[in-house]
Design a protein that fits this description.
It contains 19 helices and 19 strands. By secondary structure, it is an alpha/beta fold. The longest helix has 17 residues.
Length: about 500
């Protein structure tokens, strides 16, 4: 590429990361082609599905970020169309619904005084006699919150999500996703009114979030329109066959089949990949050494199903979502899409609930018929007491492969091996996003990795280390009352800092 010539870039994947990169590059007059496997929709796991005019997320996707750059990007794409929604989420445990984030004044009456006292004693023991050098998720959580709280509010849900015992999950995942908050402070702040402890009454970011009226897919449809307006392309139904680099010119060549079976070849100086690392390895099988290919292909992912149920809207809970910490049912989380946005349902007499079942592609749950899954979801809603018999009137099933990268004991070694080899041997190939980096990023984290990658490409140098996004994060979702919150936001930093 001649100096001063806008770069040519191919983005593989049209999720939040790929579309963010394409949009930002397009604003700088770069030539960008986005290749997306899905024949109908963009947005990846952040897309919006539709069933008989009922709209629903594949998961739930809040639009909230500590990063002003990301907030500004959302504003550019949808602006005033974005809704501001009150956040409400709870945990279902032992037949009761607990506020989430946890509040002592809610937890103590529902658990009972004896259980609550045991909870505090367990916490004290963990702080006095911590597990040295914690290696697993269970070790890490026990050290920070005590074994009783681990058993009540972490174990069941975590094992549903990952399909692994908590002793098999790396402590890295806990350190990345869970705030190490002082439980004592949380209790004090919940029990003592703010006027006596001088706390601010200003609402914190956790209490509200923004959301497109027609679901997250509306945001990414808007991104496609702006990418196209800049003269670039987002091509759907494109199945990548191979990815190779000319050793002399270092130009990348991507071959892909369109939905009609024709083979297309695209060339560019840069390739941005947000697809799972194991898929990327398949595209590059002819140019990867065996040990790199094996490392990439043995990374593991967790899949899930969304069973979207159309229900009569009589006495329905008003939560945005509920975590199900109950081992007697298989559902892990329940989304209430009408609470996310009233525009998600075509008739106010009805609602749409999304029951999420975590599984592995090919297992018994994944292979169950849609009819059996809808029946199971209906039965479990009734068992949990969230609807009464006869309230479910229709339903559909969406299967989402490779939803979550698995943090098992060997994942970090494999990712670092692949990352290092590609960085040394394949210049111009950039990994971004949740699956592209095998990193359990939130939507805004994935977008930030793409935004910084685009900046690196435009500057012609690696000014930003995208692997630091969501690495040494500040935690800003618990608010002034310091309630327990299991989320975090990123603070990117330049490579040289």
């Amino acid at each position: 590429m001649m100096k001063g010539t806008p770069p040519r870039v191919i983005c593989i994947g049209a999720g939040p990361a790929g579309l963010t990169a394409a949009y930002h590059l397009g604003k700088a007059a770069a030539s960008v082609t986005v290749l997306e496997r899905d024949p109908r929709l963009v947005g990846g796991i952040s897309r919006t599905e539709t069933y008989k005019s009922f709209r629903f997320d594949v998961g739930g996707h809040r639009f909230f970020s500590k990063s002003q750059e990301i907030e500004d990007l959302w504003e550019e794409l949808l602006g005033e169309e974005l809704l501001t929604r009150q956040r409400k989420s709870r945990i279902f445990y032992n037949g009761k619904l607990f506020d989430y984030p946890l509040r002592a004044l809610d937890v103590i009456p529902k658990l009972g005084l004896f259980e609550s006292l045991g909870f505090l004693l367990s916490y004290g023991k963990a702080r006095m006699f911590p597990i040295r050098n914690p290696q697993t998720f269970e070790d890490w959580v026990t050290n920070h919150f005590g074994h009783r709280l681990f058993n009540i509010f972490f174990k069941s849900y975590t094992e549903k999500v990952w399909g692994m015992k908590c002793k098999e999950i790396s402590a890295d995942w806990a350190a990345q996703r869970i705030q190490g908050l002082s439980l004592g402070s949380a209790v004090v702040n919940a029990l003592i009114p703010s006027r006596f402890r001088g706390a601010s009454s200003v609402k914190t970011l956790i209490e509200t979030f923004r959301y497109p009226p027609l679901g997250p897919g509306q945001m990414w449809d808007a991104a496609v329109e702006k990418i196209s307006a800049a003269g670039n392309e987002v091509l759907l139904g494109m199945n990548v066959k191979s990815l190779e680099q000319d050793p002399d010119t270092q130009v990348w060549r991507v071959s892909a089949y369109s939905h009609d079976g024709k083979l297309h070849v695209y060339e560019a100086e840069h390739v941005i990949s947000s697809v799972p690392i194991l898929d990327l390895a398949e595209y590059m099988v002819d140019c990867l050494p065996d040990f790199i290919f094996t490392a990439a292909r043995t990374l593991r992912y967790r899949d899930f199903l969304t069973v979207a149920l159309v229900t009569k809207d009589t006495d329905c809970f008003d939560d945005n979502w509920i975590y199900i910490h109950d081992a007697s049912v298989r559902v892990g989380r329940i989304q209430n899409f009408k609470s996310w946005s009233p525009h998600m349902v075509p008739d106010p007499e009805f609602n749409c609930l999304g029951l999420e079942y975590f599984c592995f592609e090919g297992d018994g749950l994944w292979e169950s018929s849609d009819e059996d899954l809808i029946r199971l979801a209906d039965e479990e809603l009734i068992k949990l007491g969230l609807v009464t018999p006869g309230h479910v009137v229709d339903g559909t099933v969406i299967r989402q492969p490779k939803a979550y990268p698995v943090y098992d004991e060997n994942y970090e070694e494999k990712v670092n091996l692949v990352r290092s080899w590609l960085g040394k041997n394949k210049p111009g190939l950039h990994l971004v996003g949740r699956n592209g980096m095998h990193k359990y990023n939130n939507q805004d984290h994935s977008m930030m990795t793409a935004l910084l990658t685009a900046e690196n490409i435009l500057s012609g140098e690696e000014r930003w280390d995208v692997w630091q996004v969501n690495q040494d994060a500040e935690y800003h979702e618990s608010g002034s009352d310091q309630r327990l919150a299991l989320h975090e936001r990123m603070v990117p930093r330049p490579v040289d800092s």
